[in-house]
Amino acid sequence: MKILIIEDDEKTAGYVANGLREAGYTIDRAGDGKEGLYLAADGGYDLLVVDRMLPVMDGLAVVRALRGSGVHTPVLFLTALSGIDERVSGLDAGGDDYLTKPFSFAELEARVRALLRRPAAAVQQTVLRVADLELDLVKRTVARGDQPISLQPREFRLLEYLMRHAGEVVTRTMLLEQVWDFHFDPQTNVVETHISRLRTKVDKPFQSTLIHTVRGAGYCLREA
Amino acid sequence: MRLNAFRTTSFRLAALYAFFFGLSTTALLLLVYWYTLGQMEQDLERSVSARLTQLHGVYDSGGLEALKKSVTQESSQPGSRFRYALIDPRGLRVAGQVPYSDLGEEWQELEGEDEESGGENEDAILGGHGVRLPGGWLLWVGRDVETLHELRERLAGAVSAAMAVTIALALGAGVFMGWQVSRRVEAMNRTARSIMAGDLTRRLAVRGTGDEFDRLAEQFNAMLERIQALMENLRQVSSNIAHDLRTPLAHLRHRLEELRGRTLTTVQYQDAVDQAIGETDTILATFEALLRIAQIESGRRRTAFTRVDLSALLEELAETYAPVAEDMGHKLSAEVSAGVHVQGDRRLLTQMLVNLIENALRHTPAGTRVEMRLPEPAQSGALVTVSDNGPGVPEQERDKIFRRFYRLDASRTTPGSGLGLSLVAVIAELHDVTITLKDNRPGLRVDLQFPPQGAA
Is residue B134 reached through a cis peptide bond, with omega within 30 degrees of 0 on the bond before it? Predict the structure, then answer.
């Protein structure tokens, strides 16, 4: 998996590149927008990590130029601009996800993995399956083996998100954004509470545990 | 910057005024001049013509000799204002006393010695004209027009003097007015300069006459008042930020120092690092909240406003927070009427309501009931209430809790940035929502009054 980091700040670029290298990705770096556009233009990368504010050519312009020339490599924007407007303009320009500095590496890694997995998830599925857990998106039912599980609407959405990203680490922030549409950090244990309720219904009555806590990062739904 | 009266707007206006005033005065005087003198000249010409006609009558009835006699007789009349000449076809005067030879039928004015008065009236000026008689004779009658000339000169003198005085007065008034205005403007400039130099307590002088300068000064003073209040607020906020961030940073530093001195297992290390990261996150969250407040306050971004289903939003939040409340030993209930919509930014409204709900959950003891209500909206717009039966907020503190970093004494130990309700306040303001804090007997009730939706 080849990732291009377009970031002018040495410290951030180094931090991201080292972390992603350790996680097993091949990393290239570009120090400004023009160089980044040149490197990414042939579509040879699996993911671009692009800073919003770059010298010579800013991140938005780079991504617009790429999308305009038919390059559809997934883009994760990094930015110090945290406003909702910036988020929207980033996604409008053709970005696929958006991460505000400062961020934890776990957060970045989780989002990178989610983006790299995205094309496969684009296939329309009506039933999600992980081990003996089955979630029917049309009938809105959940069952483990032949045991039906009754979930609240919010719990259903939470489980759906976890199952769509089965085997991947999903962070608390990702869950808040995707399941609750909360684009801020709540002061109470919203995620923990709902995960715990979900566990009571999905894991507790059964032999094996599917929802795992990943220390310092988030949660992961997987077999064993 | 020297005060230069000639460069002021009022001087320019005065100069322009002087110019037009002078112009109209001149026109008026010229009119008077021409009208008066013209009338006099006309009278004079008419009397000369009448005398000519009279003498022509003498010629018609008595012939040349009678005329000659009549002219000689008239010329010798002492004190007469008329002067005569009868010229024969060779150009010689045969009767009368006009000394000039170049007389004609057209009106002419002649300057020179008057024979009749014999030097007494040396510079006499004659005005008159002649009439041709058969046989090439010329009868000429004139009158002394010196008085007319004198009057003309005097009038001309008076007119130019009046014009000079008018223009001088107008210019003088212009300079004076310009100087007066410049003096007041300069006084304002001086005040403005000292304000720019940092003395925000200075105010522009108001004379109390209620003129436009006073009104301007009052407006500027009101503006300065507001700026000073904002600056004060900013100073307050900055020092609060410094204070609020120093505490967690000091804790962090303390913890890290402690760690360095101890021998720990990997697990203990991990725990310590996690705690340190948690503390850093708290600091970052404070910054994030501050930035959000600043962004919402400065942006006034209503472009993201859409029709938001407030009922659905409240139901979702109730579903999300009921288990959270339960885990905290509280009870959350919601009474929401369906289908209430408002114009707004969904994400910001979510955050506003979440902050209020969390505020009610976090600052009340276990066992407290928190209620959310959205009754059927009245004409005045939707009303959302979030109430609890906890300890409440003392009345004198109620308007303070929306201030940045303000915390009730009772909640100092509860973690939090002290910014949650400030954020509620700015989001409410953006949406024209009026927040009222009420006594829930016991507890606190927060009313969010949305504007009527036709207007929003």
Answer: no
- Contacts of B225-228 with CB under 8 Å at 24 or more apart are B227/B200, B228/B200, B228/B201
Please judge whether A154 and B324 are an interchain contact, meaning their C-beta atoms are less than 8 angstroms apart. no
Alpha helix ranges (H) inside A5-104: 10-22, 33-40, 59-68, 84-92
Q: What is the ipTM of this complex?
A: 0.75
What is the distance, to the nearest Å, from the Cα of residue A155 to the centroid of all Cα atoms in its chain?
A: 19
Question: What are phi and psi for residue B96, nearest 5 degrees?
Answer: 95, 180
Say yes or no for a CB contact (<8 Å) between A189 and B324: yes
How many residue contacts between A and B have a Cβ separation below 8 Å? 63
| Contact partners, residue A177, CB within 8 Å, separation at least 6 | A183
B1 in Cβ contact with B115 (< 8 Å): no
In this complex, the residue of B301, B350, B361 whose CB is nearest that of residue A188 is B361
Whole-angstrom Cα distance, residue A214 to residue A169?
A: 7
Write out the DSSP string of B222-233: HHHHHHHHHHHH
Under the banding of pLDDT at 50, 70 and 90, the label for residue B120 is: very low
- Residue for token digits 């021998």? B263
Chain B contact present for A18, CB below 8 A: no
pLDDT digits 0-9 by tens, B20-74: 877 887 788 778 878 888 888 888 889 888 988 888 888 888 888 888 888 888 8
pLDDT above 70 for B118: no
Q: Are B424 and B355 in contact (CB under 8 A)?
A: yes
pTM of the model: 0.61
Chain A residues closer than 8 Å to B327 by CB: 189, 193, 196
Distance CA B443, CA A214 (A): 40
A188 → closest Cβ in B301, B316, B358 = B358
Rounded Cα distance between B325 and B336, Å, is 18
Low-confidence residues of chain A: pLDDT under 50: 121
Check B319 against A153: CB less than 8 A apart.
yes
Residue B298's nearest CA partner among B456, B426, B422 is B426
End-to-end CA distance of chain A: 26
Helical pair B212-260 and B146-196, crossing angle rounded to 10 deg: 20
Tokens matching residue B397: 């503190």
Residue B139, pLDDT > 60, answer yes
Which ranges of B122-265 would DSSP assign to H, the alpha helix?
146-196, 212-260
Both tokens assigned to A135 = 């979630």
- Mean pLDDT over all residues of chain B? 82
Q: For B365-406, write each residue's pLDDT tens digit.
A: 888 999 999 998 878 889 999 999 888 888 877 777 777 676
